[in-house]
Specification:
Blueprint (H helix, E strand, L loop, with lengths): L2 H11 L16 H7 L14 E6 L6 E7 L2 E7 L4 H4 L3 H13 L6 E5 L4 E5 L8 H5 L1 H15 L10 H9 L1
Length: 171
Amino acid sequence: MSPGVAMKRENRKNGENNGNNRGSSGRPDRRLETALDSWRLWSPSLGPRPRAVRRLPGGLTNEAWLLDTEAGQAVLRLNSPYREWFGVDRYREATVLAAVSRLGLAPDVWFNDPAGGFLVTEYIDGRTWTAADFRESGQQRKLLTLLAKLQSIGVDLPRFDYLAHLDHYRG
């Protein structure tokens, strides 16, 4: 069993991650509510407090929520409280996200609070590519163009040590 699946099972046992915004007590999930309460700090400026529409499917370690806001739909990601187990560096991620969103390769970041454990981005409606998409020459050209653009990004970060990261899983 993967660590993500094991954590989801443990969270469900504790009344978390149950597919709605309420814990086992029937009260709104504390982490979701805390993140939503910070809406005045988000950019673009929003009118009323955003509303959680539904939990988005997928993801083994984080929760993602679709939000309705006065500025349009957004996604709020609640980071896994076990991120250290996976060696996830949310500050490194924030630097990369800022760079790729400036080039239009990722959604705009509305708010990022690595210490608080959540990220808010604009929502972009789309679909996951199928095997047929990867075989189509027009789609392949689009992908190659995007990859070239991505590889041109200069981000000032220390080099990532993949072997040390993998050692983290062995230990």
